[in-house]
User: Fold this.
Amino acid sequence: MARMTSSARPLLNRRLAEFGTTIFAEMSALAVATGAINLGQGFPDTDGPEAIREAAVRALRDGRGNQYPPGPGVPELRTAVAAHQLRRYGLSYDPDTEVLVTAGATEAIAAALLALVEPGDEVVALEPYYDSYAACIAMAGGRRVPVTLRPHEGAFRLDLDELRAAVTDRTRLLLLNTPHNPTGAVLTREELTAVAELAVERDLLVVTDEVYEHLVFDDAEHIPLATLPGMRDRTVTVGSAGKTFSFTGWKVGWITATPGLVTAVRSAKQFLTYVASGPFQYAVAEALALPESYFAAFREDMRARREVLAAGLAEAGFGVFKPAGTYFVTTDIRPLGESDGFAFCRSLPERAGVVAIPNAVFYDHRAEGAPYVRFAFCKQIPVLEEAASRLKALAG
Assistant:
């Protein structure tokens, strides 16, 4: 006879009790149910370079990666990651001891936090934050301490005094994201220098999510935190192929860090997926070696898409924060006479045939994010033009 589960104790681990179905699942289901254009979840509607897709097919046919790849990742990809960091940023990493391949950036962040955070440790994260950050901190038993990015002169900015005030004797780690999802902010050299000085002064570790490193626009510059004085030895840098090469389903990410940090993260990672994405690792190794012309064209293409959507949103009456990086536009719905992003996004598919994401889901301080809504522009330009046309109904 089966033993009955006690009704006095919930089935879900209490650390995860606050996390239900993600807003992405909810809004994507709403898009399907209503036939709305889905500008909510951040995935492209076209595949990346044909040559890279064929590289994956070639690896499959050649039997490379069809069985378990090496735990740290295939040597070709680890070498390619190290070469990419050296070529672009002057950061030298040993591919054998300072690079670890993961099942996307999400696993990299999870493994890093599980490895480096003890129960009770405080983790300072920039708010709004990608939703997995909060769940990973909770699974590690840490306590998240948000520092809120706020609008200033048309962009979201980090308050360095607030960041410093958030660090206590219990702080173990800073969790950064630049270019920043969902606000599109790119931390400046001044901001990053202040972060680095604080980390050195307070002997903090830093995990920095840089998956949008190749998507910076206009005068913005992506500066890896690990390049700043005192930071290489205390920084775990997270990268990913999905956003740069438009193969988000391949789930190929990586970290670069010192041997001690890589060993710690690998100790947690080996009990998560162990290994993943074998044939795709070989293809991503080839992708990272593409000429600079690819990255420049990719960036310019996304910039053009940004312009189409940002202009359409402004014409529809939104307050628009034009992003310096990523492929998301954050908007303010108050000029439309709205203030509740959740209610707005749940009604938008019926009102205008478009799906977006309420930024408040990325905040601990929900009131701070209530009037902001995020749209993704990693879609084909005709799709963005149609979405913009539909959204004009709001202006009327």
